[in-house]
Design brief:
This protein has a single domain (3-132), classed as Nuclear Transport Factor 2, Chain: A (Roll). A 6-stranded mixed β-sheet has the order 2-1-6-5-4-3. With 134 residues, it is an alpha+beta fold. It is globular. Helix content is 34%, strand content 43%.
């Protein structure tokens, strides 16, 4: 796949996230995808490694059960024949309080044969923990 092809796949995933279309996301990941929000600890329910399409589905279920995303803006992308790196500005509000929180995340996507085989998302875990604390 070309860098442009890989970037298009990632952009399609971001569009599906914005529409809340889990099935469209799952169509673009491999059956054994390695998926994780990189974080020490368990401050957020979506942190930690997941495997396969069921793992990706549980990631989004945990995310959507915990927070409401009010802004999600991918930008500053770089792509190669196998990798895509994207900075994403996002704002969210926990379901348990009104602490609106904004930060920039880094997403690293690895792709093979038109499917995502590995995803790593990193964010300000201390800020997330603070937002989610009661």
């Amino acid at each position: 796949m070309t860098p442009q092809d890989n970037m298009q796949i990632v952009n399609e995933i971001y569009a599906a996230v914005g529409r809340g279309e889990l099935e469209a996301i799952l169509q673009r990941v491999s059956d054994d995808v390695d998926w994780a929000a990189d974080a020490d600890g368990a401050a957020a329910p979506w942190y930690g490694p997941r495997t396969g399409k069921t793992g990706v589905a549980s990631f989004f279920e945990d995310l959507n059960r915990s927070i409401k995303i009010t802004q999600f803006t991918p930008h500053s992308a770089a792509a190669s024949d196998s990798d895509v790196h994207v900075l994403v500005d996002w704002t969210f509000r926990p379901m348990t309080n009104d602490r609106q929180t904004s930060m920039t995340m880094h997403h690293h996507w690895q792709l093979r044969d038109g499917k995502v085989t590995r995803f790593r998302g990193s964010e300000d875990t201390a800020l997330t923990a603070q937002a989610l604390s009661e």
